[in-house]
Amino acid sequence: MVRALEAIGAAVESGRAGEAFFAVDGLWGIHGGSAAGVLAAARRALRQQEPREVARPDGGEARWHLATGPARFAAYLEAAGWGSPAPVEALRARLQAPRPEVEALLEGLERLGIETLPALARISADQVADRFGRLGLAALRLARGEDEPLRPRQPHEDLAEAIELPEGIAGRQLDRALELLVDRLLASPRRAGRTLLGLRLGALLAAGGSWSVEQGLGRPTASARVLRSLLAARLEELPGPATALRLRALGLGPPASDQLELAVGGEGPRRRRLGAAVREVRATQGPGALLKILPVDSASRVPERWALLTPFPEL
After folding, report:
1. Which of 4-18, 36-50, 208-222 is predicted most confidently?
2. Bond into 85 cis (ω within 30)
3. Residue ranges of the alpha helices (H) in 22-171?
4. I need a labelling partner for 139 at 20 to 30 A (CA). Which of 45, 65, 224, 295 fits?
5. Quick one: 88 exposed, middle or buried, by C-beta within 10 A (0-12, 13-18, 19+)?
6. Is the C-alpha dihedral spanning 194, 200, 201, 204 positive or negative?
7. Tens digit of pLDDT for each residue in 153-211?
8. How many CB atoms lie within 10 A of CB 234?
9. How crowded is residue 175: how many other Cβ atoms within 10 Å of its Cβ?
10. How far is the CA of 99 from the CAs of 32, 115, 137, in angstroms?
11. Cα separation of 197 and 215, whole Å?
12. Where are the CATH 3.30.1490.100 domain residues in the chain?
C-alpha cells in the first residue's frame, strides 16, 4: 500500500498495517488540481499496483477507505465513518498509551457526561490536565485537531538511467546523450513527480576506466533546462571519449508542483500548464506516451544513429 501511494508522488506516513497518511495539497498540480483528483489517483494506484491486497478472504473485493481532513485524526475519523459529532470512543485506537490507561480515561469522560469530541474540545486544558493528566491533554489535542506534523518515511529508491554509446564519442554528440539521459530520468515513473536534490554523472571511458562526479542542485528542481545546464558544465571535465553515460538521482524532494522557476517574458504560466498536461498524459497513458525526436549524428552513414526518441520534458 505504501509503495502504491508513493508511486503517485505522496510522502507517506504509515505507523500501522493497512493505514497510511499523506499530505494532498502538494499533489494537486499533478492530479487534477483538487483533493478529489488526488484521492482518485490514490484509488487507481491501490487497485493497479497492489492487486493481491484487494481480495477479502470471502472472495469479495476489499474497499479502500480514503478521506481528507485538516489533520491526521480528522482524516481518520472521516475514513473510519465515525460520523459527526464523533464520540470520544474514537480516541481508543489513536491514543499512544497502555490500554488500561486509555480505558480509564474514556470511562472518566463518560461519567462526566463528555460523550463527543466537540464536547471534549470545549473544556479548558487546565481542567483536563487537573483531572486526567498527560493522557487527557493528548486526547484534548486530538479533539481540537492539534495533531503532530506528519513524519513520512524516506523511501530508498534507485532512480538512474544509462545509455551505451556505440563508439567512443565526445563533444556535441555527448551533449545529446546527456540530454537524452536527463529526459529519461525525469520521465521515469519511479520519480513520481518529485524533484531532485542531487545527481551523480558517470561515464565509461573509451580508453579504459571510469569517471564520475556529483552535482548538488542548491534547491530541489525537476527542470530539464536547469539539470542540463549544470551537468553540461561538469561534462566538460570528462578526460576523454566515453562509451557509456549513467545518471543517478542522489535524493528526491517534494513534488515538482511545489517548486517555482523564474521565466522571462511571461513564459512561466504557459510552461506550468504545459508541464501539468505532460504529467497528466503520462499518469494516464504511461511514461512512453509522449516522445520527441532528438537529433544525434546527422552525418552518420547508419540511419539509426541520425536521431533518437526521448521522453518529452515536463518543462
Report:
1. 208-222
2. yes
3. 35-49, 72-80, 99-111, 117-121, 125-143
4. 65
5. buried
6. negative
7. 766 567 899 988 877 788 888 888 899 899 989 988 888 788 888 899 999 999 889 99
8. 15
9. 16
10. 42, 19, 17
11. 9
12. 160-311
Q: How far apart are CA 11 and CA 203, in angstroms?
A: 32
The CATH number of 160-311 is which of 3.30.1490.100, 3.60.15.10, 1.20.1250.20, 3.30.230.10?
3.30.1490.100
According to the model, what pLDDT value does residue 291 have?
A: 73
Q: Are 49 and 3 within 8 A, CB to CB? A: yes
Backbone CA torsion sign across 246, 252, 253, 256: positive
C-alpha cell at 119: 464536547
From CA 86, how far away is CA 91, in angstroms rounded?
Answer: 10
DSSP of 61-79: B--------SSHHHHHHHH
Q: Tell me the pLDDT tens digit for each residue of 81-138.
A: 898 899 999 999 899 899 999 999 999 999 999 999 999 999 999 999 999 999 999 9
Which residues on adjacent β-strands are paired with residue 121? none
Q: What is the mean pLDDT of the chain?
A: 81
Residue 96 CA to residue 102 CA, distance in Å, equals 9
What would the grid cell of residue 93 be?
485506537
Q: Whose grid coordinates read 486509555?
A: 102
For residue 274, what are the CA distances in angstroms to 35, 89, 267? 21, 48, 11
**DSSP H or E segment with residue 195:** strand 194-205
Terminal C-alpha separation, the chain: 30
